[in-house]
TrEMBL record:
PROSITE patterns: HIS_KIN (PS50109)
Enzyme Commission no: 2.7.13.3
UniProt catalytic activity: ATP + protein L-histidine = ADP + protein N-phospho-L-histidine
Gene3D superfamilies cross-referenced by the UniProt entry: 1.10.287.130, Galactose-binding domain-like (2.60.120.260), Histidine kinase-like ATPase, C-terminal domain (3.30.565.10)
Keyword Signal: yes
CDD domains from the UniProt entry: HisKA
Segment forming the signal sequence: 1-20
The species this protein was found in: Hymenobacter lapidarius
Transmembrane segments: 200-221, 233-254, 266-287, 294-313, 319-336, 348-374, 386-408
Key words, A-Z: Membrane, Phosphoprotein, Signal, Transmembrane, Transmembrane helix
An annotated Gene Ontology molecular function: phosphorelay sensor kinase activity
Name of the protein: histidine kinase
Family annotation (SMART domains): HATPase_c, HisKA
UniProt KW Membrane keyword: yes
């Protein structure tokens, strides 16, 4: 954050290195690892010499570098010689540790954007990246382990650093401006620094979790109450801060990242911080009912200017960023103060959140002022690390909690108001209900009487309507069947008359052929002529036989058409299907036995007891059953004639009641039917019997009687070579 960077710069300005020069000004004497109470270690700023170029001999401790130029590598890059900004260079420092420091190990840590090799007394002790003119894959210096300056070393020690600055365009995304910072720290200081990083990561994890929950909470508020758009903007604010803290945790968790990965992540964190507080400004506008004006637009313009300067002119980006955060905080305070002056409900909660930030800013600035004026250590730098972590969490969370409490209070007050309104509505409803109950008490008896009468009349009307619909359907079906019967009868009669002539004259012609053959046998004709005439008469006789056969088939079709057109004069009446089916089963069996005395078949019946009577026309259903039984006996008779060993012809009849219907099943173990035949058997004039044995109208007529005449169904299920089952279902 910009405030964090400001504090760091102020602390660096106040810190003065605790060093004392020896009589040889080329050697730095180190008496202490702290400066003015700072616990961050000793920053080595004096005594450095540098030289541009690369020579391995410059790492040796006996090399004389007094001809090199002096340098403070901790100063910003733009203040250093331009030739240090690219290419290879060496930095050398001679230092002496006090006797108290030489008796224990001292740790050395470097921080900068570049690749380097550190030599201590001529020995390579650390390599960061690949040192070359334009280094790549430069590691994050914060993740490098410290270099150990062992105890009991020489009195005068030589530190040589082979350095190549990182020259990537991503460098402008970072916040470090120095060339290279080199610290001497004790083990306790290094552990404390690591502990601070852990506390910062843990604190960021907590803050990320809290802001993540606030994001989901306010998105839910907006989802169910979209009129309050402040919830949406505050969700954006909390979400941006949650992502920023999450990025810090990711940055801390990465074990060995490169600067190519870390600097963009750092830049994104900075952008999320500014975006979060821009959304906080927008949330306050919506929260207090103020209309955003040119100030708010100017803040967004400043944000885009900061982004552009960071990418293209980093020198001024820090100033613009600090000014932007100052203006954002000023606008937040202005909006809160305006709401307080207007005495808006709950505005003091938001003001309390920002007052915490102001209080800590005053404390921080006062501590720096006291330290600078009185030349004493900064009291904030002496505070425990846990206290600093707590303060950071409070600075992050106080405005968010203030706004959240305000929104929660508004939600609660709206809920209370709604509860009051609901109570009033309930009272009014109770009064209205009491009045209605009085009226209902007066009308209850009349309503019961009317309802009883209406129910009775409705039942009567319903029964009448049902009977009327059934009668109407029956009449329509009868009219259709009568019209079809008349048409079929007329066609059949017209065909029957010429067909009778054909059949009669065919029989007469057959007789004449026989008489001609007899006369030819006694006639005195040459043998060749007689044989030829005999063949002609024989062919003529065969033709007459074919004419007679097909004439009889046509006569059977005509009789079937006349039967199809015949309508039953009776109406539907309750019919005992068990008795009707059993009667026609016996009748069909005896009829087939009369034609062929050698035929026998087993009859099996399974008639459901207590079967209700079904409204039906008995004669029509009898014709259907007679046709089905006849087909069944024909099928078993055909299979019996095939001579199959062990075959026993069987025809079964069963009845049952299923879901408000009565089902009649006729089953045989005859020849069965293929699927292609099953699809056509209910079509008129389709038959599988030989010519002269079937008209193809039996099943068609049966299907019409069951479906159209009685509102039922007729279906078939057959397995070729095994069995066939016809099922009739009729409504009760």
């Amino acid at each position: 954050m910009p405030m964090r960077y400001f504090l760091l710069l102020m602390s660096l300005w106040l810190l003065a290195p605790a060093v004392a020069q020896t009589p040889n000004p080329a050697v730095l004497r180190v008496d202490s690892l702290t400066t003015k109470g700072s616990r961050n270690g000793l920053l080595l700023e004096q005594g450095w010499r540098y030289h541009v170029g690369d020579d391995p001999a410059w790492a040796r401790p006996d090399f004389d570098e007094r001809g090199w130029d002096t340098l403070n590598p901790a100063r910003p890059r733009q203040e250093l010689p331009p030739r240090l900004g690219s290419g290879m260079s060496w930095l050398r420092l001679r230092f002496r540790l006090a006797d108290s420091l030489r008796q224990r190990a001292v740790l050395l840590q470097a921080d900068g954007y570049g690749a380097w090799e550190i030599y201590l007394n001529g020995r390579l002790v650390q390599r960061a990246g690949i040192v070359r003119a334009n280094p790549t894959q430069v590691p994050d210096p914060d993740k490098l382990p410290p270099v150990v300056v062992p105890a009991g070393g020489p009195v005068e020690q030589v530190l040589a650093i082979r350095f190549a600055p990182w020259q990537s365009r991503l460098l402008r995304l970072g916040t470090e401006t120095q060339l290279l910072d080199v610290f001497l720290r004790s083990e306790a200081q290094v552990r404390e620094q690591a502990a601070r990083e852990v506390r910062a990561a843990m604190g960021s994890s907590v803050v990320a979790g809290i802001f993540g929950l606030l994001t989901l909470l306010h998105l839910a508020f907006f989802r169910y109450y979209p009129a309050q758009r402040a919830n949406l903007y505050f969700a954006f604010f909390a979400g941006a801060l949650a992502l920023q803290c999450l990025a810090l945790v990711i940055q801390w968790a990465l074990s060995s990242p490169t600067l190519e990965a870390m600097l963009p992540l750092l830049f994104v964190r900075r952008l999320l911080f500014y975006l979060a507080y821009l959304w906080a400004v927008r949330a306050l506008y919506a929260l207090f009912g103020f209309r955003p004006g040119w100030v708010y637009k100017g803040l967004w313009l400043g944000f885009f200017a900061f982004v552009a300067l960071t990418l293209f002119a980093k020198t001024y980006a820090g100033y613009v960023g600090a000014l932007l955060i100052f203006l954002i905080i000023a606008e937040l305070l202005r909006l809160t103060g305006r709401a307080l002056r207007q005495r808006q409900r709950g505005a003091w909660m938001v003001g309390a959140g920002f007052a915490v930030i102001l209080l800590f800013l005053v404390v921080i600035l006062g501590a720096f002022a006291v330290s600078a004026l009185l030349k004493v250590p900064n009291p904030l730098q002496q505070a425990p690390g846990g206290f600093n972590t707590f303060v950071s969490l409070l600075l992050y969370l106080s405005p968010a909690l203030g706004i959240s409490l305000y929104l929660a209070r508004e939600f609660a007050l709206d809920s209370q108001l709604l509860q009051v309104k609901l109570t009033e509505v309930e009272k009014l409803s109770a009064q209205t209900l009491a009045q209605e109950q009085d009226k209902q008490a007066l009308l209850a008896a009349q309503n019961e009487t009317l309802e009883t009468q209406v129910a009775q009349r409705t039942g009567e009307l319903q029964r009448s309507l049902t009977e009327l619909r059934a009668t109407q359907a029956q009449l329509i079906q009868k009219e259709k069947m009568a019209s079809l019967g008349e048409l079929t009868a007329g066609i059949a009669h017209e065909i029957q008359n010429p067909l009778n002539f054909v059949n009669n004259f065919s029989e007469v012609s057959a007789g004449l052929c026989q008489e001609a053959q007899e006369l030819l046998a006694t006639a005195a004709l040459p043998a060749a002529d007689k044989d030829e005439l005999t063949d002609l008469l024989r062919d003529l006789e065969q033709n007459q036989a074919k004419i007679t056969q097909h004439g009889r088939r046509a006569a059977a079709i005509v009789r079937g058409m006349l039967e199809h057109s015949r309508t039953s004069p009776g109406d539907r009446a309750p019919t005992d299907l068990n008795a009707l089916a059993d009667e026609y089963l016996r009748l069909a069996y005896q009829g087939l036995r009369a034609k062929d005395k050698t035929f026998n078949a087993a009859l099996r019946t399974n008639l459901a007891p207590g079967l209700p009577d079904v409204p039906a026309v008995g004669a029509d259903l009898g014709r259907v059953l007679l046709n089905l039984f006849g087909n069944a006996f024909y099928a078993v008779h055909q299979r019996q004639q095939a001579g199959e060993a062990g075959y026993a012809p069987t025809v079964s009849l069963s009845t049952e009641r299923v879901d408000g219907h009565v089902a009649i099943r006729v089953t045989d173990n005859g020849t069965g039917m293929r699927p292609a035949v099953q699809a056509k058997i209910f079509q008129p004039f389709f038959t599988t019997k030989p010519s002269g044995e079937g008209t193809g109208l039996g099943l068609s007529l049966s299907y019409d009687i069951v479906t159209k005449g009685h509102g039922g169904t007729l279906s078939v299920h057959s397995t070729p070579g095994e069995s066939t089952e016809f099922t009739i279902t009729l409504p009760v």
